[in-house]
Design brief:
0% strand, 67% helix, mainly alpha
């Protein structure tokens, strides 16, 4: 008699690792935030475009009444857009990452959702949103104001990438700090207000007095904003810029913030 073949033992489905589980979780968290932040507001994503556009227009009109020409080029709106858009990415993304644990605290009780999923979802969504907004605004400005600008896309993309890394590092470190000291969120909001003036958004480095140059050189945002402007103004060559220095703080803070979150994420979730 021939023996009936016995099928090979199969691994239980629960024991099989789910492929792309983290990617699906992050994507689901991104969709949730899109619906929460933009889905319940009249206008939705339109406000993500109108907010920076309004800020750029206000600066352009205000300074055009005080100055004959912008520090670079001949268009006030183009000059301020090249500084404000990457700076806005840093501020918005770092604040979003800083509050990522709070935003998804209820979902972190489920085993399928981890702290890194919540952090990555907010970071990726905010960076992608700001990149899309920057593209739409700059394309419109160049078309309406000065379509003859010769663009160098590498420093433009480089500046947004450096801003994203720095924003992620600052956001993760602040996420842990405000988990233990909630008042730090208010303090951070006050401390960062002068960054708008200290990051070269409304002026260029070479126009500053020597003492101010020596101080503001240590601000990595000044380097990154200047890198951004080299992509729009070919004649602008900031000799003070150090790409390595602009990258290093973001990498150090990102590594440090992730280590802190890995160690203290349970305490952060329970305290906030």
């Amino acid at each position: 008699m021939s023996e009936t073949p016995v099928p090979p033992a199969q691994t239980p489905k629960a024991a099989q690792p789910a492929r792309f589980a983290r990617g699906r979780t992050v994507f689901a968290l991104m969709l949730r935030e899109m619906a929460t932040r933009y889905g319940v507001t009249p206008g939705g994503y339109l406000w993500a475009i109108l907010e920076p556009l309004g800020m750029i227009l206000i600066m352009s009109i205000g300074f055009s009444l005080l100055l004959r020409s912008p520090p670079l080029g001949n268009s006030f709106i183009l000059f301020y857009a090249t500084g404000y858009l990457p700076f806005s990415l840093f501020m918005r993304s770092s604040n979003a990452v800083m509050n990522s644990i709070t935003f998804s605290r209820a979902l972190l009780r489920y085993p399928a959702v981890s702290w890194i999923d919540a952090v990555l979802a907010r970071a990726i969504l905010n960076v992608l949103t700001d990149l899309l907004v920057a593209y739409l605004l700059m394309a419109s400005i160049l078309y309406l104001v000065d379509h003859r600008v010769i663009l160098d896309f590498w420093p433009i993309l480089q500046s947004f990438g450096l801003m994203a890394i720095l924003a992620f590092g600052v956001g993760t470190v602040n996420c842990v700090i405000i988990g233990f000291f909630p008042v730090w969120e208010r303090i951070w909001g006050i401390v960062t207000r002068p960054l708008f003036l200290a990051s070269g958004v409304i002026f260029i480095y070479r126009d500053l007095p020597p003492l101010a140059q020596d101080i503001l050189w240590w601000n990595p945002l000044m380097h990154i904003v200047s890198i951004s402007r080299t992509g729009y103004f070919p004649a602008y060559e900031p000799q003070f810029v150090s790409t390595n220095y602009a990258l290093l703080p973001g990498l150090i803070l990102s590594a440090f913030g992730l280590l802190l979150l890995r160690r203290y994420h349970l305490e952060v979730v329970s305290r906030r």
